[in-house]
Each structure stands twice: as structure tokens, then as C-alpha cells.
Design goal:
The protein contains 7 helices and 8 strands. The protein is α+β, with helices and mostly antiparallel strands and 210 residues long. The chain has 2 domains: 67 residues, Winged helix-like DNA-binding domain superfamily/Winged helix DNA-binding domain (Arc Repressor Mutant, subunit A); 135 residues, 2-Layer Sandwich (Beta-Lactamase), CATH 3.30.450. The longest helix is centred in the middle third of the chain and has 20 residues. It is elongated and about 65 Å long. It starts with 6 loop residues before the first helix and ends with a helix.
Amino acid sequence: MAAETSQTLDRGLRLLDLLADAPAGRSVAELAAALEVGRTVVYRLVVTLEAHGLVRRDAEGRVRLGLGALRLAARVVPLLREAALPSLRRLAEEVGATAHLTVADGADALAVAVVEPSWTDYHVAYRVGSRHPIARGAAGRALLRGRTGEAGFVQSSGELQPGAVGVAAPVLGLPNVEASVGVVALGSLDTERAGRLVERAAAEVAAALR
């Protein structure tokens, strides 16, 4: 027997998803059509979510995400970082390269967690908060691969830093989470072995967040 669900909560969450994909907001009529419910139902949902700061209505009556949604979103990154750190530490030590967790932030790839290996003579310095165009580098291209649901790792060489080699894989199976796990090293890197370990780490991160 399927688990019981709350129809009202389901509609409210779907409404938030619709607004997340509409930077200019949506009208009540548009939301009602998308949710296949009457305008009265949408009004009730909007008033309730507005009371919690999750949505707001502009001067034209269009509904947009509110600051409360931004506060909730800001708490996601620490959760991702906490879930990823154990796997990143093991990955960095096994590969002997700087390991990182990267998320999509608009048109950019943003590093939210970084672990450097403890035993190497030198390694790539890669700081939390570093960003680059999502279409460049292994981490970014792994994010794009994740959007299609395609498994496997990608690699890059010298795209973001001369002499740097990167390998990354998408974190799959988590709705509304666009993330990748990767390593970056200077000089040579056994990309096949690193790729297998990166894929394993990405799967571990996904499992930790389920």
C-alpha cells in the first residue's frame, strides 16, 4: 500500500518548484493551470506560504519566491558539505590530489567543499568559493552530465589552470541537487583509477544525503 501523503503539502511544494523556475514570478492563473487546481486553492496556498516568508506577491500580483526560501536554500550548502567531507578525505588520500565538491550556481560551477591530501609534496590549492563557467573544467562538465542523468566521469586538462588535470563525476539520484565530486592535480594523474574512485565518492555522497 502506498504511503499516505498530504495533498495540500504536495501542492505547496510543487508551487515552490514552479516559482524556482520562474525568476519573473508567475500569476495566480498560471499557477492554477500548472497545478491543475482552482484559483481559490492557489490563493490559499500563497497566503499560507507568504505568512512563512516563502513566497511574496509583487505590485502586479505576481507570485515570487520570498526571502524565507533563500534562507532555507542557504542551509543546503552546509548539509552538502557535511555529507561529502568523509568521502572527500578518503578520495584525496587515495588519489593524492585535491578533492572537491562542486555545485551549480546559475551559469557557474561553485566549489563548496575542498580537501587536500596530507602526504603529497605539492598539490593544487583550490579554495572553497572558487567558481568558473559551468561548461569548462571537469567539475562543471560533470554537473552538465548530471542534468541528463548520465553516469560516469569526465576529465579535463589545462582548461582552468595550466598543467592541471581534473577528473569529476556527477552526484546522481538527488532531486533538485546539482553537484559533482572531483579531484584536481598538477602534472600526471591516472585518470582511469581516479575516475573510478571519483564515481565511488559521488555515489557515497548521494547515499549520505538520501
